[in-house]
Amino acid sequence: xxxxxxxxxxxxxxxxxxxxxxxxxxxxxxxxxxxxxxxxxxxxxxxxxxxxxxxxxxxxxxxxxxxxxxxxxxxxxxxxxxxxxxxxxxxxxxxxxxxxxxxxxxxxxxxxxxxxxxxxxxxxxxxxxxxxxxxxxxxxxxxxxxxxxxxxxxxxxxxxxxxxxxxxxxxxxxxxxxxxxxxxxxxxxxxxxxxxxxxxxxxxxxxxxxxxxxxxxxxxxxxxxxxxxxxxxxxxxxxxxxxxxxxxxxxxxxxxxxxxx
Length: 261
Hints:
By secondary structure, this protein is of the alpha+beta class. 27% of the residues lie in helices and 31% in strands. Strands 1, 6, 7, 8, 11 and 12 form a 6-stranded mixed sheet that branches. Strands 2-3-4-5 form a 4-stranded antiparallel sheet, with no helix packed on it. A 4-stranded antiparallel sheet has the order 10-9-15-16, with no helix packed on it.
């Protein structure tokens, strides 16, 4: 005898005249409904698992694709230095942000003659700055003029100072003098605002000063009967003026070295 049938008999035994649906049918229907609910729940669980599985795979692919795209983007993106505007080509070591090269330094023995252009020679000692010129009558060097730099008048002793002197040949103007103070990175001649970097001349034992020279074509300095006299400035490595001496432009206007290169 089935369980449902036995329950039905017991209920009828309690009330043989009871009316209504057969308990056996009710119980059997309840069992079928429970069975359907269990089957439905299992199907729902499987469906969720499949959906979640698809979602997980898709998300995984997206992360993977994103990582690959990120790596590719990083490889193609400009570097931080390039983005910050780093120069595309190397800057020569002798160059600075001013764009001008440092002054060349020429080291010589004391009293060694340096011929800047034919007809003008220079020499230095630890304390003197000298220039030799050719005698017009003989065409040979025969006159030497020296300045004792450490005791020369007109130069400040409490700050850097520079002087300017020049001599001429038929086609060249040679600017030559000396500077006192901390060693400059460059000494620059200015004519009409155009800079020309001078050469520094030094010898062993020289302290607190340095000689310099530069030569310019005379044709570039003349306007009619007027001739320009270069302004000169001594500058530190950052391009700041340490000491300067004024000059005169070819049109007669005063010219000064700039405070910064």
